[in-house]
């Protein structure tokens, strides 16, 4: 009997040259996924994984976002999606929850390119393309920043002149909101601790961010007006002295654009190790004795631990720490090293359990005597977006 997929929601993540998609059944039991890559180039193609697990690759040489979406929607048409949920990077201070797409919302997504120039225009392209093909299919936008809109002003304001906040919206917004929301709400369900829960969440992937979440609300996070602030990442530096820009301009004559590229694309694990932005490569090189790779690992863990410790100041109560993202979900060594940095927190790791948590396993790894709970929760941003999409439409 053919497998069916009941009342599915299509989740789209449109980047500047790629589209990630997932068609998810209402009960989250069945999923079709795929990725369109290299859009606009001769090598543009779609990798599609069907319901039966069969994979196919479709060549769309030179294909645009619109063409890719036409093909993707044609592949999925037989399953009759009831709604589309778009991951949108920046919702500014206008959006604190997922909203149905209207002409006004689409205009706002486009206007917010002033603070997310690389991402919001691609997200808007996706909305328009779906609209052109299926004008009657309801669409919802789920913002990466929305979950952090509950931060208090003391956490989101920069200590710079007030007019820049009032007139130019310069403030901290935070990102990875759907991931922090998903993993903290999952931990709320799994934890046996009584009362309201306070979590420190560490999303450690190519991009890395941490957040302080109490009773389901974000109270502070490590990323700021852009995703560059905070932790050391794959290619992003995270925090640097803001005086670095003027120093590099004076001493090396670098332009602001060059400095921005250096901090976003050539720094982090890649910049310090000189090898790779991929944690597996850096870990392997460190194990083989490469000193730069060892330092990159040490810095990554020291900065993550230091940030998590400082974010605990935002919480009325601390229940535990949650790890997620490709690194947080897979590397017991990195988790252990980060927790050793936080050695004054009365944390006790169950090493055997920690070692068992990788490749999509979900579970706790604290020793019964540990003051704090420790969790690995594989993130599921697609599911969270599908859920918020249905909620926004009252489905
Ligand atoms: P993205 O942020 O692009 O979604 P991921 O969440 O998939 O990325 O995380 C990618 C990172 O996870 C890479 O640095 C990769 O090396 C790392 N990673 C994946 N598997 C492992 C592993 N077994 N051990 C250490 N790091 C891993």
Please render the helix and strand layout as text.
Elements: E1 9-14, E2 19-24, E3 31-37, E4 45-49, E5 55-59, H1 65-76, E6 83-88, E7 99-100, H2 103-111, H3 120-133, E8 139-143, H4 153-156, H5 162-168, H6 177-190, E9 198-204, E10 208-214, E11 217-221, H7 244-252, H8 256-265, H9 268-273, H10 279-287, H11 291-311, E12 320-324, H12 325-330, H13 332-341, H14 351-356, E13 363-364, E14 373-376, H15 381-393
Parallel strand pairs: 1-6, 6-8, 9-12, 12-14
Antiparallel strand pairs: 1-2, 2-3, 3-4, 4-5, 7-8, 9-10, 10-11, 13-14
Helix pairs in contact: 1-3, 2-3, 10-11, 11-13
Bound molecules: adenosine-5'-diphosphate (ADP).
The site of adenosine-5'-diphosphate has 13 residues, from helix 10 and helix 12.
Spans of at least 5 consecutive residues with low confidence = none
Shape: globular
N-to-C SSE series?
Answer: EEEEEHEEHHEHHHEEEHHHHHEHHHEEH
Mean pLDDT: 96
Folded structure, characterized:
The protein has 395 residues and is an alpha/beta fold. It contains 15 helices and 14 strands. A hairpin with a 6-residue loop joins strand 2 (19-24) and strand 3. The longest helix has 21 residues, at 291-311. The relative contact order is 0.11. It binds adenosine-5'-diphosphate. Residues 205-207, 234, 278-280, 283, 325-327, 330-331 line the site of adenosine-5'-diphosphate (ADP).
């Amino acid at each position: 009997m053919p497998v069916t997929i009941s009342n599915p929601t299509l989740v789209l993540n449109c980047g500047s040259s790629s589209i990630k998609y997932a068609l998810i059944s209402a009960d989250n039991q069945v999923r079709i996924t795929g990725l369109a890559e290299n859009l606009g180039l001769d090598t543009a193609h779609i990798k599609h994984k069907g319901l039966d697990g069969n994979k196919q690759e479709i060549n769309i040489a030179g294909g645009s976002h619109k063409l890719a979406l036409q093909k993707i929607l044609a592949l999925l048409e037989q399953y009759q999606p009831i709604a589309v949920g778009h991951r949108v990077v920046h919702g500014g201070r206008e959006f604190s929850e997922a909203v149905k797409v209207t002409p006004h919302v689409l205009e706002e997504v486009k206007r917010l390119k002033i603070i997310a120039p690389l991402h919001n225009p691609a997200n808007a392209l996706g909305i328009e393309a779906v609209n052109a093909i299926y004008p009657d299919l309801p669409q919802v936008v789920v913002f990466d920043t929305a979950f952090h809109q509950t931060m208090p002003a003391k956490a989101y304001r920069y200590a710079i002149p007030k007019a820049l906040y009032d007139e130019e919206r310069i403030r901290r917004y935070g990102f990875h909101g759907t991931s922090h929301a998903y993993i903290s709400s999952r931990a709320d369900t799994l934890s046996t601790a009584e009362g309201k829960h306070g979590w420190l969440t560490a999303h450690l992937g190519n991009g890395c961010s941490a957040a302080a979440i109490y009773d389901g609300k974000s109270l502070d996070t490590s990323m700021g007006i852009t995703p560059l602030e905070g932790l050391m990442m794959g290619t992003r530096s995270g925090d640097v002295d803001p005086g670095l820009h003027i120093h590099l301009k004076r001493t090396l004559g670098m332009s602001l654009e060059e400095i921005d590229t250096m901090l976003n694309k050539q720094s982090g694990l890649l910049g310090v190790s000189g090898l790779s932005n991929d944690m597996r490569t850096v870990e392997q090189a460190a194990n083989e004795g490469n000193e730069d790779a060892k330092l990159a690992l040490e810095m990554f863990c020291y900065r993550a631990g230091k940030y998590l410790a400082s974010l605990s100041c935002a919480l009325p109560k601390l229940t535990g720490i949650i790890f997620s993202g490709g690194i947080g979900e897979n590397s017991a060594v990195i988790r252990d090293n980060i927790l050793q940095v936080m050695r004054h927190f009365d944390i006790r790791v169950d090493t055997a359990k920690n070692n068992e948590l990788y490749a999509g396993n979900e579970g706790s790894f604290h020793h019964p005597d540990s003051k704090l709970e420790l969790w690995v929760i594989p993130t599921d941003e697609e599911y969270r977006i599908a859920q918020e999409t249905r909620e926004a439409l009252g489905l």
